[in-house]
Design a protein that fits this description.
The chain is an alpha/beta fold. It folds into two domains: 4-21 and 145-336, Collagenase (Catalytic Domain); 39-137, Immunoglobulin-like (Sandwich), CATH 2.60.40. The chain has three helices and 16 strands. It has helices at residues 179-194, 276-298, 323-330; strands at residues 4-6, 39-43, 48-51, 58-65, 70-71, 76-83, 86-94, 100-104, 111-119, 128-129, 133-137, 166-171, 198-203, 220-226, 240-247, 253-262. The strands form three sheets. Strands 1-15-16-14-12-13 form a six-stranded mixed sheet, covered by helices on one side. Strands 3, 6, 7, 9, 10 and 11 form a six-stranded mixed sheet that branches. α1 (179-194) links the parallel β12 (166-171) and β13. Residues 1-24 have low confidence and may be disordered. Bound molecules: zinc ion. Zinc ion is lined by residues 3-4, 6, 292, 296, 302, 312. Residues 3-4, 6, 292, 296, 302, 312 line the site of zinc ion (ZN). This is Matrixin family metalloprotease. One of its GO terms (molecular function) is metallopeptidase activity. InterPro entries: MetalloPept_cat_dom_sf, Pept_M10_metallopeptidase, Peptidase_Metallo.
Length: 339
């Protein structure tokens, strides 16, 4: 069964779309001026930690005013992530009364991340940065297949701004009640794969890909159950449709995305006597399609590798992203930098 059609939508360039898109965090520029006191930031061992998602990693150390030879007391601190386009602040803190600090490192997404602690400049002291520390967040299951098994929707890689929280809305529209929990779980899997946060903005009556209504979605992601009479892209054996609209200003990025799910999707029927295994099967079938369509929304294309969620035919009903899916999603995520 063909699971989905990858909907590639022409670029939309609407006046003012870029105006509200301000990167959430900027890296601090570290410059030393001779008139200012020099700041040193020490960070303790280990130089490399490895944890499972949401495992605890802290960076501890101390800040000194190296010119005065005194502790850097109550200095503001930025915990910065190294991305493909520079350092990005992902947490903040401050030193204590003796110049010491402890910062918790975000470990909610997979990958090999590099961090540093920066004390921004004050009126009297220059900024200082610690040496880098590596933290690897491991995938908590055996990811199937090859990391090379991924493609992208557009000829060049188009991304959402990973430094903004992306809102999403669901139109249940008489579809399976399990959808709400499945969508939540699916976005959690996307967050773990990309470092991008998503926010549940409740329900909507909007339907993505409805004839004549293209370009009328709210910013962010809309997921709706519907029928082929409303969304012609669901004709034939397609049970889901997913894609995003993008603009080229100021740089190429997605602005809204949608998932349309076919109410003719052949799910096992539920009754008051349904066993746990039937309930689980229904949930898994819905999730395998939602994960696939959200992969398109994020920017992934199809692959021939049957071990990946992004294979267009839903034979295996995967409910976790494979190694190729994860490698592709990482290239669309926070480690690539803000937009
Ligand atoms: Zn597809």
């Amino acid at each position: 069964m063909r699971r989905a059609i990858a909907a590639t939508i022409a670029a939309v360039t609407a006046t003012g779309i870029g105006a509200g898109l301000v990167p959430a965090a900027h890296a601090t520029t570290v410059t030393a001026r001779t008139a200012l006191h020099r700041t040193t930031v020490a960070v303790g061992q280990p130089t490399h930690a490895s944890v499972t998602p949401n495992g605890t990693v802290t960076l501890s150390g101390s800040v000194r005013d190296a010119t005065a030879g005194k502790p850097g007391v109550r200095r503001a601190l930025h915990l910065e992530l190294k991305t493909a386009s520079g350092w990005v602040t992902r947490a903040t803190g401050a030193t204590n009364a003796t110049g010491g600090y402890t910062l918790r490192v975000p470990t909610y997404w997979y990958g090999h991340h590099t961090w540093r602690v920066v004390a921004p400049a004050t009126r009297t002291a220059a900024a200082g940065a610690s040496s880098a520390r590596a933290v690897t967040v491991t995938v908590p299951y055996k990811a199937r297949g090859k990391a090379s098994s991924h493609t992208f929707m557009q000829a060049r890689v188009v991304r959402w701004n990973p430094c903004q929280v992306i809102p999403y809305r669901v139109n249940l529209n008489g579809g399976p009640a399990e959808t709400m929990a499945v969508v939540k779980a699916s976005f959690a899997k996307l967050t773990a794969a990309t470092g991008i946060r998503f926010a549940d903005k409740g329900t909507t009556s909007a339907i993505p890909f409805a004839a004549g209504k293209r370009g009328q979605l709210a910013a962010g992601i809309t997921i709706a159950w519907t029928r082929v009479s409303t969304v012609s892209g669901l004709a034939g054996t397609a049970v889901g449709l997913g894609g995003s609209t993008w603009t080229t200003r100021p740089t190429a990025h997605y602005i809204d995305g949608g998932v349309a799910l076919d109410k003719a999707f052949p799910l096992p029927k539920l009754s008051s006597t349904s066993s746990a295994s039937v309930k689980k099967l229904r949930t898994n079938l819905i999730e395998s399609v939602v994960l696939h369509e959200l992969g398109h929304v994020m920017g992934l294309g199809h692959v021939n590798d049957r071990q990946q969620v992004m294979n267009p035919v839903d034979v295996d009903g995967w409910t976790t992203y494979g190694a190729g899916d994860l490698a592709g999603l990482a290239r669309l995520g926070l480690d690539q930098g803000c937009l």
